[in-house]
Amino acid sequence: MKRIFTIAMTALLMAACSSEGDLLEPKPVTPATPEIPTEQKDTVKPAEPAPEQPTTTYPAKYCVARMDITVDGNMAITSKDKADYRGCTIKIESDTAVWNYEGRGRIRGRGNSTWEWYPKKPYRLKLDKKAEILGLAADKDWVLLANYRDPTHLMNTFVFEMGAALDIPYPNHSRYVELTVNGDYKGLYQLTEQVEQGKNRVAVDEHEGWLLSLDVDDGPQESPGAGDNFWSQVYRMPVCVKSPEAEDYATPDMLIGDAREVLAALENIILNHDYEALAKVCDVPVMIDYLLIQEFIYNVEVSAPRSIFIHKDAGEGSKWTFGPLWDFDAGYDFDWGQMTTGHKYFSDYRETVLGTDPARHVSDYTYTPSFFTDMWKNRQFVSEVKARWKQIRPRIMAEFWPEAKRYAEACAEAMERDAKRWPIDKQYQTEINRMEKWLNSRTVYFDNIIQNYP
After folding, report:
1. Containing H/E element for 176?
2. CB 22: neighbour CB atoms within 10 A?
3. Which of 10, 102, 160, 354 gives 358 a disulfide partner, CB atoms 3.0 to 4.6 angstroms apart?
4. Best CA proximity match to 79, nearest among 38, 98, 107
5. d(Cα 302, Cα 299) in Å, to the nearest integer?
6. CB atoms near residue 442 (< 10 Å)
7. Cα-Cα-Cα-Cα dihedral of 186, 192, 194, 200, to 10°?
8. pLDDT in tens, 266-287
9. Pairing state of beta strands 64-71 and 175-181?
């Protein structure tokens, strides 16, 4: 279960500052009407009516499909426990005929705070047989994100698109569906891949590769007795082993021992901020992109940490790689003071998680694990961070944000229906506009921070 523990909550509430006055509303522009000379007024003919504008057609990936799930016996989905999967029939209808699908599978709830706190529930799907869903590579495991807290429906999509464009390995993809369960319209959902080991997921060796999650909720304090988690040896981070499976080891203790040892080797190199040693065991360019995205989005869950994935394939010469990117509705200056009911974002763009001086923890979150910041003690690493940001910055509002907005434009009618099904105190188009302004302001602010990294 995803819990916001007391220390983190206190720091998060103290971090809230500023007001929406920092983000100026754009001034309306009234087109000038040319003056018609007096002598010509009687001879000017009325303008012809403007031709009707053609309907915009979007490529298939942006468009909303219709997903209907019928649970066996019309049973309600009341649990996220693995033991409580419900058998179901899944039918998908798309404007792209080859994407239509019908098959059998199982469904249950998913998430932590999103399942516990909010009326619009997220779901996990496990198909009986692997299948391509809405043009995505075949697999059994899929996720339906409710995005109830996110009034834009774009927070994860923006990061997924940014990460994919920057070639961070194994990116999640976005597909939008209007979901009906047992005849009950549930609204607009984001369908994406489950983060897991697999040929069409995180493609590390299932027996000798590693997929680890740095996550408070799945770690030993919040999930004691799970048998697949531990405290890391150097930075004492909560770690959950997502792959290999425990059954591939003689005992769970052997699995945990090997995972702790292999991660400790990476931790010690970061602790010593040795760039040359790090480059031999870690994909440094991906690490830099990954951390830049987390900080740019102001994803406070890095401080816990939560939803941070790293992976390493089998074989000599394989390197640790940060990613996949996952779970960003705690970014964008989310107001944690309203965490169980609120949808308030974008009030302030001038906050940091890693910090204005990461190596010394000069940040709004001074307790962020030094695993993410100790490399800022190395001049070469900081130099590469600065150089990489110069490449990324011009693409944010020119490329990454327009790509995310295409989904919003194609989903506009579905967003309207979702807003009627789940009315909140925010209007989605207003919030999308505020998100755009926040990203724009954040880009300028973040540029100044990176230029002045010590």
Report:
1. strand 175-181
2. 15
3. 354
4. 107
5. 6
6. 22
7. 150
8. 999 999 999 999 999 999 999 9
9. parallel
CA 423, CA 347: separation in Å to the nearest integer?
Answer: 21
Two tokens, residue 181: 């369960």
Average pLDDT over residues 313-338: 96
pLDDT in tens, 357-384: 999 999 999 999 999 999 999 999 999 9
Torsion of CA 255, 258, 261, 266, to 10 degrees: -90
Spatial distance between the Cα atoms of 294 and 298, rounded to a whole number of angstroms:
6
Contact 382, 450 (CB under 8 A): no
**pTM for this one?**
0.87
Tokens 């706190």 found at? 117
Instruction: Calculate the alpha carbon distances from 394 to 216, 246, 331, 377, 388 in Å.
Output: 35, 45, 21, 27, 11
DSSP designation for 420: H
Place of tokens 């940490």: 305
Tokens of 228: 């697949």
Residue 310 token pair: 């790293």
Tokens of 295: 């900080």
In DSSP terms, 246 is beta-bridged to none
Among 134, 103, 128, 159, which Cα is nearest to 307's?
159
Tell me how far apart the alpha carbons of residues 187 and 144 are, in angstroms, rounded to a whole number: 11
Strands (E), 283-408: 308-312, 321-322
Q: Strand, coil or helix: what is 75?
A: coil
* Cα 180 from Cα 89, distance rounded (Å): 12
Cα angle 377-361-240, degrees, rounded to a multiple of 5: 90
